[in-house]
């Protein structure tokens, strides 16, 4: 089985997918998880400091995870087709420095990426690693909209 560090050179940004934020999706997510006026109502949002309907930051972050899960499933299939075993990724013990840098408006397409920053062995768990990754998203204009650092457990 390969490790993430063997598969992806530290510091190399890898695009993991894109997601377009439709008004209906923004409203649906907001209704369930972040019911603020600028996420729920197009007319009301025009009067907000954002000037238009925009996605919750949590929705933008969930979009990163949606793209990552799909990307990782595709990577596992790709590696298997080459006769290789993908690293077995476990949960994340947390993240830090979550920043919503620009609003994501209805109709925006966000392209998400991941960069391996560091991989270290877990001394108390033989074969386990903790990977630090930089998670990012930018809109169709190349403007950064999301950034956070995450830890990902890699299992033996």
Q: What's the tally of helices? A: 5
Percent strand: 25-35%
Q: The biggest beta sheet, please?
A: 6 strands, antiparallel
What is the mean pLDDT? 96
Which series of helices and strands comes N to C?
HEHHHHEEEEE
Could you tell me how far the N terminus lies from the C terminus, measured between alpha carbons in angstroms? 8 Å
Number of strands: 6
Secondary-structure-based class equals: alpha+beta
Radius of gyration, whole Å: 18 Å
Architecture overview:
A hairpin with a 7-residue loop joins β4 (109-121) and β5. 26% of the residues are buried. Helices cover 31% and strands 33% of the residues. By secondary structure, the chain is an alpha+beta fold. The mean pLDDT is 96.
Main attributes?
156 residues, 6-stranded antiparallel sheet, 5 helices, elongated
Task: Describe the secondary structure blueprint for this structure.
Layout (H helix, E strand, L loop, with lengths): L3 H4 L5 E8 L2 H11 L3 H4 L1 H5 L10 H25 L6 E2 L4 E7 L8 E13 L7 E10 L5 E12 L1
Antiparallel strand pairs: 1-4, 2-6, 3-6, 4-5, 5-6
